[in-house]
Specification:
By secondary structure, this protein is α/β, with parallel strands linked by helices. It has six helices and 16 strands. It is elongated, with a radius of gyration of 27 Å. The relative contact order is 0.07. Bound molecules: zinc ion. Keywords: Leucine-rich repeat, Repeat.
Length: 357
């Protein structure tokens, strides 16, 4: 082992110390660790992956200028406080260990990490310390046992890449849409049933991986993701034909009256009506069917509309209509419902790759 380290020291000189695959179960804290103090001070990247470490050795904090630490593929169940003393550390990789939410030190969130990879561990939830890493640009917790994403994810305002594929996540919190620089979002191989309409705020999103989930439709707001270049949807039970809406509660007399007042522009003023009715009339939503001038209040029909992408794929998008009659032109011939404003608002070149098959 020693000769290898000597080679490293005299050899590279690029600040990389590779101690991977050496069957190490510890890293002694004596002066020879990593080839002496001078060498340790010069080390920027330390690779301890594929060893037999049960904990991150306390002696790593002797590498005061470390920027990258890789402790992947050990038997790690604990990351000790020592790691938090590495003030220069920007990239921490601890893939394929036995870590869970009890494994991270209390002050982990105070580190200045930019890249954190905890994929292939045993996390059932994202540790709250991770949501405090304000400089974090890349977070990977794929292949764990996550069931949810905490709303605190919105605190990671520098995040550009989020990889959470291969977990048991059932829902996406709307707070995820508050990440202004998020460009790559991987949520494939989960149990997600819906995409929140707030996704329209993800202006930087270039790639969205949703394959192998439980999606049946997408929110129509997804059309406003103007930067999106890659969308993967294969392996979802996406509806492929018009679905007749089963649940439609008939509008109340109040709603019928309100619809008539709004759609026929019946004039009214502050003196004519009590304030609760004035407020109610303000809540009217315009029916999105371009052939219908109607409005609705509480009673509406969930409607799946198919929109062409790239002239090749038809995506099911969800929107609301004022009544079942409003859908009948579509239900009789869904394919002819293609010339509405949605179509022209989607340039054919917007989505370069839509992966459905
Ligand atoms: Zn309508």
């Amino acid at each position: 082992m020693e000769p290898q380290e000597e080679e490293e020291v005299s050899g590279s000189g690029d600040g990389v110390l590779d101690l991977s695959r050496l069957h190490l179960d510890s890293l002694a804290a004596d002066d020879d660790v990593g080839g002496g103090e001078e060498r340790r001070r010069a080390t920027r990247q330390l690779y301890l992956n594929h060893n037999r470490l049960a904990a991150v050795p306390a002696s790593v904090c002797l590498f005061a200028n470390l920027r990258l630490l890789d402790v992947s593929n050990n038997g790690l169940s604990v990351i000790g406080e020592d790691v938090t003393r590495l003030t220069q550390l920007r990239t921490f990789v601890a893939k394929n260990n036995r870590l869970d939410e009890t494994s991270l030190p209390k002050d982990f969130g105070a580190m200045q990490l930019e890249v954190l990879n905890l994929s292939g561990n045993r996390f059932q939830e994202i540790p709250l310390q991770c949501t405090k890493l304000r400089r974090l640009q890349s977070l990977s917790i794929g292949g764990n046992r996550l069931r949810s994403i905490p709303a605190e994810i919105e605190n990671l305002t520098s995040l550009e890449l989020l990889y959470l594929g291969g977990n048991f996540i059932t829902a996406i919190p709307p707070e995820l849409a508050n990440l202004p620089y998020l460009s790559y979002l991987v949520l494939c191989d989960n149990r997600i049933q819906g995409v929140p309409p707030q996704f329209t705020r993800l202006h930087s999103l270039r790639s969205l991986s949703l394959h192998n989930n439980l999606l049946t439709y997408l929110p129509r707001e997804i059309l406003s993701l103007v930067r999106l270049q890659e969308l993967s949807l294969r392996g979802n039970p996406l509806v492929v034909r018009f679905v007749k809406e089963m649940t439609y509660d008939p509008p109340s007399l109040l709603e019928l009256a309100g619809r008539t007042v709004k759609s026929r522009n019946v004039p009214y003023s502050r003196c004519d009506l009590p304030s609760n009715l004035l407020n109610y009339l303000d809540l009217a939503s315009k029916c999105p069917n371009p052939k219908c001038a109607g409005v609705y209040f509480d009673s509406c029909v969930r409607h799946i509309k198919f929109v062409d992408f790239c002239g090749k794929y038809r995506l099911p998008l969800m929107h609301y209509l004022c009544s079942p009659e409003c859908t009948s032109p579509c239900s009789s011939n869904p394919q002819s419902d293609a010339e509405s404003e949605d179509e022209s608002s989607v340039p054919a070149d917007r989505l370069q790759r839509v992966l459905l098959g």
